[in-house]
Amino acid sequence: MNQVKKADPNNRTVAENRKARFSYEVLDTIETGLVLTGTEVKSLRQGQANIQESYASAEGGEIWLINSYLPEYLQANRFNHEPRRRRKLLVSKREMAKLSQSVEREGMTLVPLKIYFNDRGRAKLLLAIARGKKLHDKRETEKQRDWSREKGRLLKERG
Asked: Is there a contact between 13 and 114 (Cβ–Cβ < 8 Å)?
């Protein structure tokens, strides 16, 4: 018997920063936890979040997610959260030292790639250590993407 695996409602992507891979050269990724309030989690479960203009910063021995947008949860009257507040990221001490060292010494940037719920139902953030691409690197990426798309079309036509 062929069993169809159902999509787990807990393990799904809520927000993705698709432009980050175009604008930055991703060198390493780290899964981090998020410190959220109850209304923020409910807003995430509704699939409403935006991390397009957000970034992470190491300040005072902690890592913060800055400028991410989680809209207010409509059913929570006065107990709501600020949509663009700074959110603390949960990482181990070793990872925090690695991240802060790469940002300070090597001039890297901490870019959030996506927010998702893991198999235990916890909100996680995929954080990338990245280096900004120059204009000619972006053009090269676009050429490779166009060529791979064209190559796929040619192979599909010829069988």
From this structure: yes
Handedness of CA 74, 77, 79, 81 (dihedral sign): positive
**Residue ranges of domains in the chain, CATH in brackets:** 11-132 (2.40.280.10)
Contacts of 32 (CB under 8 A, 6+ apart): 63, 89, 90, 91, 124, 125, 126, 127
User: Checking phi first, is residue 60 left (phi over 0); if not, alpha (psi -120 to 50) or beta?
Assistant: left
What single-letter amino acid sits at 7? A
Cα separation, 127 vs 99, in Å, equals: 10
Q: What pTM does this model have?
A: 0.74
What pLDDT, on the 0 to 100 scale, is given for residue 2? 54
Dist CA 88 CA 34 (whole Å): 6
Which is nearest to 88 in space by CA: 136, 127, 135? 127
Beta bridge mates, 55: 66
Main-chain phi, psi angles of 100, to 5 degrees: -65, -35
Q: Which residue numbers in the chain have pLDDT < 70?
A: 1-11, 159
